[in-house]
Design goal:
Elements lengths: L1 H6 L3 H33 L2 H4 L11 H35 L1 E4 L7 E3 L2 H51 L5 H10 L1
Antiparallel strand pairs: 1-2
Length: 179
């Protein structure tokens, strides 16, 4: 097209071809840079990047993150179950208290509801906090898996493809930013 612009002495066509060629080369260089960064980060062992944490599991950064998030969600789920059982036990214990056994037969009970309401409020706050941390960690794990399987393999190449052409350049740039 540049040669056609030179032959027809059409300056606007020549400028357009120069700009589009420059944008195409920029897109190719960006793609190669992203590819180099992703491939490099995917192969570096996590214990090389974080030498001050010797207890990290073996594997690259993605594998270590998935393993740590999975372990954390499992342990947090166990804490949630224990908190729920403790709250149930406390509710049963503070629901009634034996205060007398008249004539040695039967019992009289007195409610400890004021104490129970305070303990109940504290335990509900703990349960809500634990549940939110479980949801947050599982959300991070799903986003990490989604990014690993979809964004890098499918979305990023299409983003660079769209970035290469002027009608879809802004859309491609937006997809690159999202990726």
């Amino acid at each position: 097209l540049y040669m056609v612009g030179v032959f027809l002495e059409h300056a606007a066509l020549q400028t357009w071809v120069k700009v589009e060629t420059g944008e195409l080369l920029t897109s190719v260089l960006l793609f190669l840079a992203f590819l180099a960064v992703f491939n490099t980060l995917a192969t570096i062992p996590a214990n090389v990047l974080f030498p001050f944490y010797p207890s990290l599991p073996e594997g690259n950064v993605y594998e270590v993150c998935v393993e740590l998030l999975s372990n954390f969600s499992i342990s947090t789920s166990i804490v949630f179950v224990l908190e729920s059982a403790f709250m149930s036990l406390i509710t049963k214990l503070f629901g009634m208290q034996v205060i007398a056994a008249p004539l040695g037969i039967g019992t009289q009970t007195e409610s400890l509801r004021p104490v129970l309401s305070l303990v109940n409020a504290l335990m509900q706050s703990a349960l809500i906090s634990t549940a939110l941390s479980i949801v947050t960690v599982l959300g991070q794990l799903h986003v990490l898996n989604f990014a690993h399987t979809f964004i890098i393999k499918y979305l990023l190449p299409f983003a660079f493809f769209f970035r290469s052409f002027s009608p879809t350049r802004k859309f491609g740039g937006s997809l690159i930013a999202i990726s």
